[in-house]
Amino acid sequence: TTACTVRFRLTFLTGKWCLMIPPTPFTDIIYEKAEGIAKVMLDITFFLSHASFVHYIIGYAFFLLLQKDNYNRPERRNAFRPQTVKELMRAFNDARDDNSIGVIIFTGKGTKAFCSGGDQSFRGKEGYADYDSFGRLNVLDLQVQIRRLPKPVIAMVAGYAVGGGHVLHMVCDLTIAADNAVFGQTGPKVGSVDAGYGASVMDRLVGPKRAREMWFMAKFYNAVEADKMGLVNTVVPLEKLEEETVKWCREILRNSPMAIRVAKSALNAVDDGHSGLQQMGGDATLLSMERRKVRRGRTPTCSAGNLISRDFLVFL
Ligand code: S0N
Prior knowledge:
Blueprint: E1 9-13, E2 16-20, E3 29-34, E4 37-42, H1 46-50, H2 53-66, H3 82-97, E5 103-108, E6 113-115, E7 123-124, E8 127-128, H4 139-148, E9 153-157, E10 160-162, H5 164-171, E11 174-178, E12 182-184, H6 197-206, H7 208-217, E13 220-222, H8 223-229, E14 234-236, H9 241-254, H10 257-295, H11 303-315
Parallel strand pairs: 4-5, 5-9, 6-10, 9-11, 10-12, 11-14
Antiparallel strand pairs: 1-2, 3-4, 7-8, 12-13
The protein binds o-succinylbenzoyl-N-coenzyme A.
Residues 73, 75-77, 79, 112-113, 116-121, 137, 139, 160, 162-164, 186-187, 190, 192, 194 line the site of o-succinylbenzoyl-N-coenzyme A (S0N).
């Protein structure tokens, strides 16, 4: 995750030597994996916290050259710009495809904010755009990705989860909140609304009256209020937040990954319509393919097989 480091290497591929460019390192997020748990962390203090002094100077110079806005401010309450979302999607994809990972924690760096939504300094006439002119609301793709990811995603929230950041915690499967957490939608104050999952998932979580209150009044709610409303699963003291979240992860990891995968797709199926059914249908296909393999006496080796073989032998 060191910023601004690009390494090249030669690789022998399809009979030819090729120049392999490894994936660009993350600049806006921190991504870690251990003991079956992936942790995806929004980190908008990136240059200061993750780069050496030389990297910082080079990176800062590049940013001044490339960006209209000076992005290098240590505290932005983990607001996301399009580039942040691109990196989040890469990390979530990796966690999805990594067989050793069974659960994902999504969080923000520090204790002041999980995420304060879209970075307002990147919102221009054409919507949200990076210095490379990537101008669209790619956070909507991230929401869909979390919703359809076949592993549980836990939002670990300290401080503010507001605006687009509030929608991100809502689309996660579980939310563990610190006692300093604050939740709310801010969009209507700046002339915007998330009329997709931001509206429908909220309606499911807190009910139609509360959902209207949250959107119409753009009020903030503390952790205890959020708990009463059904927005979060539990509230813990700030200093216990990570410990408690890891405890939940370990409990989930003790259970059948396939059962959890199917439970997630089944719980989302009705609301997600055709795409929800497609996800659940995909799980059924996976099971039937696995069953055929076991019948033929083959050891499951495919990625899904590795995840489900334990369950499947019991199921047979
Ligand atoms: C989070 C708040 C409540 C924190 O207050 P606090 O602790 O008093 O800190 P501040 O002093 O206010 O902030 C510290 C520094 O951080 C900067 N900052 C905070 N949030 C943002 C942000 N979102 N973008 C850019 N900068 C931010 C402050 O400016 C300050 O910087 P300095 O020190 O330099 O002054 C409070 O900060 C707050 O209310 N923040 C704004 C919340 C907000 O309006 N968020 C955006 C809402 N919109 C979205 O999230 C977009 C959603 C979206 O993508 C979308 C999706 C679907 C459909 C439509 C949209 C769409 O909106 O277009």
